Amino acid sequence: MPDPAKPLVSALIVSRNAKEDLLRCLKAFFASADVPVEAIVVDNHSDDGSPAAVTDEFPQATVLVQSKNLGYGRAANLGLERCQGRFVLLLSPEVTVDPQCVGRLADMLLTRPDAGAAGPRLDYPDGRRDPESRRAFPIPSTLFYQTVGLSRLFPKSSRFGRHNMGHLPDSDVHEMDAGSAACLMLRRSALDRVGFFDPRYFMFGEDLDLCYRLKLGGWKIFYVPGATATHHAKPPSRERERQLSYERHRAMWTYHFKHHAEDSSAFGNGLVWAQIWGRYVAQRVRDSVRGNNQRAT
After folding, report:
1. Superfamily of domain 9-134+170-231
2. CB crowding 128-160: b at 16 or more within 10 Å, else e
3. What is the pLDDT of residues 109-123, one digit of tens each?
4. What pTM, to 2 d.p., does this model score?
């Protein structure tokens, strides 16, 4: 029998200098949860008063304050050690869950013992879908299709739009390779079998890596559109965008090197490396030209 004193769902939120978003996220989580829950917040060395604000407004939440920015994976692993729930809901401070979201994701994991994770339909405030909420595992061809723009031209193609699974209706429950750590519910027993986040990823890629290991372990991952949430993503500053772009491309190479390099030739790995970092350089040049043009006008 389940322990009635323990929560069914533990929300795990890693946050850095996101006080207002974090408070909105926690308010929505506690208001929408119709099952026993807890919230674990790992603060990655914020200087905006986030820990005190959470403690004041949500004394039921556990706040773990770090003395430096550990990156997402390391910080999340510290939080996972404190989570007591049967299920763990990964949440970004920028995400607000809609009513019944938490319960519907939990229902999926309760009724599908083969499910290691379940993710909701994640929308932006203007109604557009967040494409990261349902993904196929990245392979060199999908990276190429994204780089040359074929994925944008043919988003519903099973070949060119494969990475964001545009060929499958986003109104239907279906299996997927990976969801997004912005909002993804995990089965704790599955985590205990495959391990927590790989700390080699500082930012980005951790969720893909974890979902890949879940699938290798025999678990299924589901997209559940009846569970909905809103992603209040904000455009970063130019300096921040440079850092994010570098970390995003570094995560791509880390993922490939970890999971696929042994199955590829040295030449093939070299092509993947060149494709990833060539794409990064092209983005930086494009952004630099765009910034110069904006200053000129």
Report:
1. Spore Coat Polysaccharide Biosynthesis Protein SpsA; Chain A (3.90.550.10)
2. ebbbbbbbbbbebebbbbbeeebbeeeeeeeeb
3. 999 999 999 999 999
4. 0.88
